[in-house]
């Protein structure tokens, strides 16, 4: 017993230090208005919620970022028009925050708006909103991107003739076990489902036995969040500002609930954008731009994964396109695209509610936030 107590006393300072050790925060931006330079790297202090600028890397419209599982490489979706949409690969030096461009590949699809990579470090997947397609790039041994290995053109339309006249792929997320990928298509009201087969020489993405699941008509699927075990999928619908809850059963998704994001009586313009679960899985958050500029906060039912709305939080700015939660769950950071700053909120781990820390990151047109833990 004495030995065990002595060990704990010796280990406690190291444990406390690890919990409060600064981590990096990557910020992707739009540069086409001339205010931003590209990708910004900040040091984030989890003890206070404050930040310090670490590096700036010039890049054209790096509107979404992903980091490799080994934290050595960063991948960007460069949301350029006129056939110049691209995927970029960078070597990442964590000590300095320096990003070194390895190479860039054209996506051959209009408006690349989302990028993800698998935990094996074998492929990068780009979602092309404008072209309604998905690109799969192989990752080379040095972290650079090879030529397009697979391109999937989605088909179809939705009931809203002004925005759903054609496919608009908005995001792609691997399942926690990395065996499948969910591809959200705003234009067709579908989550398209593919099995992920990174080895074997064939196409990495193969239509699953359940090739898709529908959202609500006219909802406009944008992003998803998943429970740690993959049994629950939460979809934010951009056009209606509602969250759809799906249950995974016998390798099939089934819709079980749809809940409102807005406060009672809201009648303004919607633009729902992003969605995340807290690290402990107890709370869900979803952002709405348009005239709302709020985060909807839900408690997750531990038994069945359904949601109970507990409140709305003003983002204290405009255009909350993307947000993220710190690895320790104590902070939630919102990228307010229209007001050129990131707002840092403190999270109550017991209630899920947010309070303003007073900390701000002044960065032009922030649209993507990625912690490096």
TrEMBL record:
Q: Does the keyword Signal apply?
A: yes
Check the record and name the Pfam families matching this protein.
Lactonase
An annotated GO cellular component of this protein is: cytosol
Q: Which InterPro entries match?
A: Cycloisomerase_2 (IPR050282), Haem_d1_sf (IPR011048), Lactonase_7-beta_prop (IPR019405), WD40/YVTN_repeat-like_dom_sf (IPR015943)
Which Gene3D superfamilies does the entry mention?
Answer: YVTN repeat-like/Quinoprotein amine dehydrogenase
A Gene Ontology biological process noted in the UniProt record is: glucose metabolic process
State if Secreted is listed as a keyword.
no
The record's GO molecular-function terms, alphabetically, read: 6-phosphogluconolactonase activity
Q: What does the UniProt keyword field contain? A: Carbohydrate metabolism, Glucose metabolism, Signal
The leader peptide range reads 1-18
Record SUPFAM superfamilies? C-terminal (heme d1) domain of cytochrome cd1-nitrite reductase
Its family remark reads: Belongs to the cycloisomerase 2 family.
Protein name in UniProt:
6-phosphogluconolactonase
Organism of origin: Parapedobacter indicus
């Amino acid at each position: 017993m004495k030995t065990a107590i002595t060990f704990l006393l010796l280990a406690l300072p190291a444990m406390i230090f690890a919990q409060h050790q600064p981590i990096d925060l990557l910020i992707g931006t739009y540069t086409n208005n001339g205010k931003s330079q590209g990708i910004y790297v900040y040091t984030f202090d989890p003890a206070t919620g404050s930040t310090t600028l670490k590096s700036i890397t010039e890049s054209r419209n790096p509107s979404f970022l992903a980091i490799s599982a080994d934290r050595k490489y960063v991948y960007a979706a460069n949301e350029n028009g006129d056939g110049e949409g691209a995927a970029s690969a960078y070597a990442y030096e964590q000590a300095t925050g320096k990003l070194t461009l390895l190479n860039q590949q054209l996506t051959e699809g209009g408006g690349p708006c989302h990028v993800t990579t698998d935990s094996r470090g074998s492929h990068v997947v780009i979602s092309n909103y404008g072209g309604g397609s998905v690109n799969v790039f192989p990752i080379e041994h040095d972290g650079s991107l090879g030529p397009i290995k697979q391109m999937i053109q989605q088909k179809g339309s939705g009931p809203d003739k002004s925005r759903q006249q054609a496919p608009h792929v908005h995001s792609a997320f691997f399942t926690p076990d990395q065996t499948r990928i969910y591809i959200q298509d705003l234009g067709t009201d579908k989550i398209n489902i593919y099995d992920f087969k990174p080895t074997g020489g064939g196409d990495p993405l193969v239509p699953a036995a359940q090739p898709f699941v529908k959202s609500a008509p006219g909802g406009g699927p944008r992003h998803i969040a998943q429970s740690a075990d993959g049994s629950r999928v939460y979809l934010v619908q951009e056009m209606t500002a509602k969250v759809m809850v799906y249950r995974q059963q016998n390798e099939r998704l089934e819709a079980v609930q749809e809940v409102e994001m807005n406060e009672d009586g809201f009648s303004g313009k919607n633009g729902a954008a992003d969605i995340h679960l807290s690290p402990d899985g107890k709370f869900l958050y979803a952002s709405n731009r348009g005239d709302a500029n709020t985060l909807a906060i839900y408690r997750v039912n531990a038994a069945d994964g359904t949601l109970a709305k507990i409140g709305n939080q003003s983002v204290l700015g405009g255009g909350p396109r993307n947000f993220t939660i710190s690895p320790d769950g104590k902070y939630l950071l919102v990228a307010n695209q229209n007001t050129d700053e990131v707002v840092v909120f403190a999270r109550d781990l017991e209630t899920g509610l947010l309070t303003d820390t007073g900390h701000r990151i002044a960065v032009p047109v922030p649209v993507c936030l990625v912690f490096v833990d």
